[in-house]
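Handout, page 2. Input:
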Amino acid sequence: MEITPQVRFRGMEPPPSAEMVIRGIASSTLHNAVTSLNLAGGARMAPFAVVKLA
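Output:
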């Protein structure tokens, strides 16, 4: 779900904007959530989350 917007941004090559900043914050939030899941024993989610954020 998150790879598509990134591909669109790369194709359009817009200047840095609020959307890019928000997306970065969202990525950090997702990364923190993945870390919490790993600490809680949800390591199965990590590979999928990493692929989405990559």
